[in-house]
């Protein structure tokens, strides 16, 4: 803990993708509310359209927009543009601390830019690990490198904290907060929700099993994504009364594969990415989630929805251990078999659906704000850590 800071603490949040924005939005709102903090928002727009959807929904108006997105952008290109453009903002604003989130290239480049300018770094959703630097790629190394550059580590779970301790991080600098995405869902999910995407209002969620899916990660490009789409096609043809809704990422590589294999399957609906509110409510109405996304592995347990993870490893083992998430890889037959099990085996489905949610209680953002106030000497006592309470 440092000495008491007399002026307001300048906290600059830096994020650039839709998943980051969803999870940072409730934190930005809490920062804005606090009398001891001057909140500054800088977006890189690593994703443009999908980022703007979230900003509009949560009514967040960035103070700075780097607008770095380019068509078919490379990882090195993203990194270079964030470093160059963010440095000018840091020199101008001189924040006391920069908050980055998770595992994107914006996250790593943002923390590196802060380090180069000797500004403190706070890492939201710190400590997630697969211990394989290429899975997920490049996210695993983005997380580790950001962790090495960070001063404050906001770990969502005890497992994440333990990962950080094994890497030599000082325990005094680690705060178990829960995941901020649970905070966000409190304002998005409504039981009587009517979709703005009209095609979804014609789907019979009450009487049909609806499987929502996403698949877009870099390590799944090529043969793995071909396998995923082929498995969904075969499952859809086998279970004609089951509806599949695939939210297709805007990346041209993903779109081409999805539409080529699934474009003519009657009970497969290919839709562009939805805004935050639409996505969360679709999850809430769905029977099952299939995804290679990290965030959905956290969101679905909160809603009591089983998740099949279309990856070989996950950096979020807590829900696997709890039983609501199962990692099934990208082998075509394995995917078909696991879809069939959850469609046909009601007891297995209920067991997964009723598992404990290990990821939060909706108070993560406040814990992070309290940790910042503690670090800068405004609060005397370190905030209590989050621990999940098991269902009785």
Automatic annotation (TrEMBL):
Keywords: Isomerase. The keyword Cell division does not apply. Residues 29-372 form the UDP-N-acetylglucosamine 2-epimerase domain. It is an enzyme of class 5 (isomerase). Pfam families: Epimerase_2. Its EC number is 5.1.3.14. NCBIfam families: wecB (TIGR00236). This is UDP-N-acetylglucosamine 2-epimerase (non-hydrolyzing). It comes from Caloramator quimbayensis.
């Amino acid at each position: 803990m440092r000495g008491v800071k007399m002026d307001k603490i300048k906290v600059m949040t830096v994020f650039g993708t839709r998943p980051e924005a969803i999870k940072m939005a409730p934190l930005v709102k809490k920062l804005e509310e606090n009398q001891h903090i001057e909140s500054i928002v800088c977006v890189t727009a690593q994703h443009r359209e999908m980022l703007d959807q979230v900003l509009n929904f949560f009514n967040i108006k960035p103070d700075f927009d780097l607008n770095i997105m380019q068509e078919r952008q490379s990882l090195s290109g993203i990194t270079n543009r964030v470093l160059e453009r963010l440095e000018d903002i840091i020199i101008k604003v001189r924040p006391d601390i920069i908050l980055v989130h998770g595992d994107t290239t914006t996250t790593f480049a943002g923390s590196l830019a802060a380090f180069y300018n000797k500004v403190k770094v706070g890492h939201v959703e710190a400590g997630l690990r697969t211990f394989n630097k290429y899975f997920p790629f490049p996210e695993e190394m983005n997380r580790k490198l950001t962790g090495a550059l960070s001063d404050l580590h906001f770990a969502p779970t005890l497992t994440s904290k333990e990962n950080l301790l094994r890497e030599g991080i000082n325990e005094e600098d680690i705060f178990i907060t829960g995941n901020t995405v649970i905070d966000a869902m409190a304002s998005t999910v409504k039981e009587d929700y009517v979709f703005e995407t009209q095609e979804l209002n014609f789907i019979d969620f009450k009487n049909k099993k609806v499987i929502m899916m996403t698949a877009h990660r870099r390590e799944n490009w090529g043969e793995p994504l071909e396998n995923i789409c082929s498995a969904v096609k075969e499952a859809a043809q086998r279970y004609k009364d089951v509806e599949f809704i695939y939210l297709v990422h805007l990346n041209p590589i993903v779109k081409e594969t999805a539409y080529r294999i699934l474009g003519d399957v009657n009970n497969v609906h290919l839709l562009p990415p939805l805004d935050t509110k639409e996505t969360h409510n679709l999850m809430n109405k769905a029977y099952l989630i299939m995804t290679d996304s990290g965030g959905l592995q956290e969101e679905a347990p909160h809603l009591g929805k089983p998740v099949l993870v279309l990856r070989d490893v996950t950096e979020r083992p807590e829900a696997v251990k709890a039983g609501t998430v199962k990692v099934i890889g990208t082998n075509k037959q394995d995917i078909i078999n696991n879809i069939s099990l959850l469609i046909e085996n009601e007891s297995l489905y209920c067991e997964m659906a009723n598992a404990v949610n290990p990821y939060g209680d909706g108070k993560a953002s406040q814990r992070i704000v309290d940790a910042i106030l503690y670090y800068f000497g405004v609060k005397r006592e370190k905030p209590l850590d989050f621990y999940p309470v098991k269902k009785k």
